[in-house]
Amino acid sequence: MKINNIEDIIRRRMAKRGIRPQDIDFFLAARRLMDGGEEIIDWEKIAPISKTFVPNFPDKGSGDYLGLKELGGQFLSQCAVLKLNGGRSTTMGGQVPKCMIEAKDGISFLDIVMRQIMAANDHYNVEIPLILMNSFFTDHVTEKIVGQTPLIIMNFIQNEYPRIREDNFMPLDTGGEMDWCPAGHGDFYTSFYGSGLVDSLLELGLRFVFVSNIDNLSAEISPVILGAMIAEHKDFLMEVTAKTPQDVKGGAPVFYNKQLSLLEIAQVPEKHRSEFKDIERFRHFNTNNLWIDLVSLKKIMDEGRMKLPIIQNRKTICDTEIIQIETAMGAALNCFDRPGLLNVPRSRFAPVKKISDLERLQSDHFYIDDHYRLRLKDQRA
């Protein structure tokens, strides 16, 4: 079958799913590149980030901490919290939206996040809205709560892409939902911008958005980090933390061709992956907690400068080897004019990806404080 005919079939399928024309064009362009193999980075152009390059989160109670907290507090009313909420609970053996799973003390992930923001709004006397990036799988759950709580909640849907067969680059065709996959969290930018919410938030007087995963309950709104972003005049701030032997596969900030970038293990040539896993060389990893200036984001999207590297994620679905075309949200580091990093305590990164993570969260290692913030008991530190 000719390429144009194949692309016509894919275009019609994607349009039927409600995917925007510009996002269909992006997928088809990425699929064409697959014929040339994966996009492999030039390892000789990679330079690890030095320890001194990344500023540390200030010690609690210090002058720097109190100063940044005061500065960030002045801008909290211009901030929104955005949670990536498209996940199923498949890695934990379930088929329900992860946000609805009981996380702690009989409360779901989504309920805890909502209560965290409402508590922060009361404490700081602001009205921070919650924005949810849903998938087609989770959207029906959250639409029921929009307008039904004291919290302002907005939502939009991330794109989904056809899974591509590795043997012939044709879309998987089982006739069911297994033919489709989320577009990867790097799709956040095009979906968020395409939804019209960027313009709406700016019109409402909001300037900043804090983005994190719904299953990372430790990623709470922080006036200190917002203050650090404003003080250093950054338009994109990535929270990183120190790698341990358990984090060797995590995406690492690097200089690529002398430009601040994010390197994912899937992009690393096989012969250099042991180097990438060296936690003395690549000291930090991306927590996927990001702080973004909406004015800069709108300008980048308006000008078409959001160019993220394509990642080919290989899986076996229905006994067929397939490729999922994805992008990484943190890779936008090199798209912003004034990106920065902040080394945060490990306590801001406690995602729940496996049953063992959930069991640990529900154990007496952690407790929920009066502001619904997740805390590690001192004696368990």
Describe the secondary-structure layout.
Blueprint lengths: L2 H14 L4 H13 L12 E3 L14 H13 L3 E7 L16 E3 L2 E2 H16 L5 E5 L4 H4 L10 E5 L2 E3 L1 E2 L14 E3 L5 H7 L2 H7 L4 E6 L9 H9 L4 E7 L9 E5 L2 E5 L9 H4 L7 E10 H9 L8 E7 L2 E7 L12 E5 L11 H8 L3 E3 L5 E3 L5
Parallel strand pairs: 2-5, 2-10, 5-6, 11-17
Antiparallel strand pairs: 1-12, 3-4, 7-9, 8-16, 10-14, 11-14, 12-13, 15-16, 18-19
Helix pairs in contact: 1-2, 3-8, 7-10
Q: What series of H and E elements makes up the topology?
A: HHEHEEEHEHEEEEHHEHEEEHEHEEEHEE
First-to-last CA distance: 60 Å
Could you list the spans in which at least 5 consecutive residues all have pLDDT below 50? none
Number of strands: 19
> Spatial order of the strands in the main sheet?
6-5-2-10-14-11-17
What would the average pLDDT be, to the nearest integer? 89
Number of helices: 11
Determine Rg (CA atoms, Å).
21 Å
* Helical amount: 25-40%
Share of β-strand residues? 15-25%
Structure classification: alpha+beta
Shape, please? globular
User: Can you summarize the main beta sheet?
Assistant: 7 strands, mixed
Describe the structure.
This protein has helices at residues 3-16, 21-33, 63-75, 109-124, 139-142, 188-194, 197-203, 223-231, 273-276, 294-302, 355-362; strands spanning 46-48, 79-85, 102-104, 107-108, 130-134, 153-157, 160-162, 164-165, 180-182, 208-213, 236-242, 252-256, 259-263, 284-293, 311-317, 320-326, 339-343, 366-368, 374-376. With 381 residues, the protein is α+β, with helices and mostly antiparallel strands. The chain has a seven-stranded mixed β-sheet, with helices on both faces. Strands 1-12-13 form a three-stranded antiparallel β-sheet, with no helix packed on it. β18 (366-368) and β19 (374-376) form a beta hairpin.
